[in-house]
Amino acid sequence: MRKKKKGAGRWGRLKHSYIVLVVLAWTLFVLYPNPMKLGLSIYRIFHPPINAVGVAHLLEEIPLEPAEIETYVLREIPYQYDWVTYGMPWYFPTLEEVLDNKTGDCKSRFLVLASLFESQEIPYQLSFSLSHFWVVYEGKAETPLEQAQNAFMLREEDGSLQIQVPREDRNQIWNNFREGFWEYMPFHRKTLLILGWITAVVTMIVRSCCFKKTEEGVRA
């Protein structure tokens, strides 16, 4: 009797683990119908697709000073969340995608600015925080969002990386995540996501009740 009980308990835990895995897979599928996009985005954090040649056609119209070039990029690439531009909660595009869409979030602006600096041989550093990507250059003023202490990774022009413990404000991280991830998520995606979660919870409750009844039957 004890062996059966132990085996039944283990099987119940395995079924619950299976349901959790299904929920995770469902969540990934709803957010990223093509999961390769997420994999590429993570890869591009460590290998940003900076392309000096790709911005050659912009060189005649950009100003000379780094701060003015940044202002130019902010004006020419209006801010827009990835849900709207790419249909995903978080995506690191290529330079070509940014220039085709002519809009994007901080990653898009970051990529165009770094490419312009690269083409003009202006020294720069890439900074990555949990809620924002930005380019640092000589004379750049820090803002509450763009502070050295906020970054978890710094990347030099030569590709060398520096990892550090970020000291970014938690409320800032949460507010950026909530707005970019949830508030701009299309309604049908929210519906699919929530229905999947509800189905998983109901399934776990039903299975737990069935398991208890089976266990009581075995004891009897």
Automatic annotation (TrEMBL):
Membrane-traversing stretches: 12-32, 191-210
Gene3D superfamilies: 3.10.620.30
Superkingdom as given in the UniProt entry: Bacteria
Entry keywords, A to Z: Membrane, Transmembrane, Transmembrane helix
Protein name per its UniProtKB record: Transglutaminase-like superfamily protein
